[in-house]
Design goal:
Bound molecules: zinc ion
Structural class: alpha+beta
Number of domains: 2
Shape: elongated
Amino acid sequence: MKRAVYLLLALVLALTLTTAEMAPALAVTQADIDALKGDASDLTSQKKALKKKLDELADDKSQAMARKQLLDQQISNTSAQIQNVEAQIASYADLIAQTEAELLDAQQREQAQYELFCARVRAMEERGAVSYWSVLFKAESFTDLLGRLDIINEIMDSDQAVIDKLQALQVEIENKKTTLETSKTESEAAKADLVSKKSELDSQRKEANALIQSLAANENETEAAIDGLEEEEAAIQAEIQRLSRKLAQEQAAQGQSSNAALGGYIWPVSSHYITSTFGGRASPGGIGSTNHKGIDIGRVGYTSEIHAAKAGTVIVSQYSSSYGNYVVVSHGSGNTTLYAHMSSRKVTAGQYVNQGDVLGITGSTGNSTGPHLHFEISENGSRINPLNYLTGYTLAG
Ligand SMILES: [Zn+2]
C-alpha cells in the first residue's frame, strides 16, 4: 500500500519537473546585437590609437596638417560609432517589439490553458472523484490496487499534461519578461551613449575647423604648411591630368569612345549657394589658395549627398592634406571634375559612374574651416570656371 503511494508520488514529481521550453525563431536576435557590439569594440580601439597619435602632435605647429588629418580620421571614427549605436538601437527596438508580441501570445495561451485546467477540476468535482487517494484506499486486494493504480495513472497523465503546459507557459512568460526588461535597459543605455557620441562628434568637428582657422591667424608660423599645401595641390593636378589621359588612351585602344564632348554638367549638390568663386581672391583668413581654381558651395552641412556632375570613370578617390577626402571623375582626355572636403567617399578608383550618382557626403576634411563642397572642372587639361556651366546660383553676400 505504502509502496504504491510512493510510486504515485514519484510519478507526480517526475511529471511536474518536465517542462517544455519554447524557442521561437526571431527575426532579430541578441547575436545580431552582439556582432554590432564587436564592431563597436574595434572602433573603440581605433579611437584610442588616434587619440594617442593626436596627443603626440599636440603642440607642434609645423605638424598642423598631420594633426588635421588625424582629426579628420577621428571624426570619421566617431561617425562610424554613431552609425553602429544607431543600428544597435534599431535592433533593440525590433527585438522589443518581437518579444512583446511573443509575450502577449504566451499570456493568451496561458489563459486558455488555465481555463482548460479549471474545466478539468470542475469535471472531477462533478464526477465526485476529487481524491485519487480515496480510490486507492478502497483497494480490496493487491490485484485490485494495481488495477486502480492504472486507472489513476491514466487520469493523472491527462491532468498532469494540462498542469505541465500551464507551468511551462508560466516559465516562458517569466523568461520573456526578463528578456524584455534587459533589452529595454540596454536600449536606454545605447540611447544615452548616442547623445554623448553626437556631442563628441560636434566638438571634434569644431576642433578640426578651429585648427585650420588658427593656422590662418598665425600665418608666419604656418607659411611652411601653406607652401606644402600648394605644392601638394599642384602635384595632385599633374597626376589627375596624367590619369585622365592614360584612361582615355586605354579606352581608345579598346575601341571605346572617350566621349570628350565639353559641358553638360549638373549641380553636384542640391545647394546652389556660392561662398567663394573661381579665380583670384583674398585668401580667406590667410589660408587656402589665393588663386582659387574651383568654386566653394556652402550650406551643405555634413550630410549632403555629392552627385557626379557628369558621367565618367572615377580616377581618384583618396585623402590628401589639402583636399581632404576627394574624388576625381574623368570625362575624356583632360576633362575631369573634382569634389573635395568630403566627410566620406562612396566610390573607388576605376568605377564607372552615371551622371547624378552619389560620390560621397559633404564635410570639412583637409584644408577646410567648415563644411562646404570645393568643386572643380578641368577641360583640355585646364581648370575652368564651373559657373560658366552651372546656372541659378546665389552668391554669398
Ligand atoms: Zn575651394
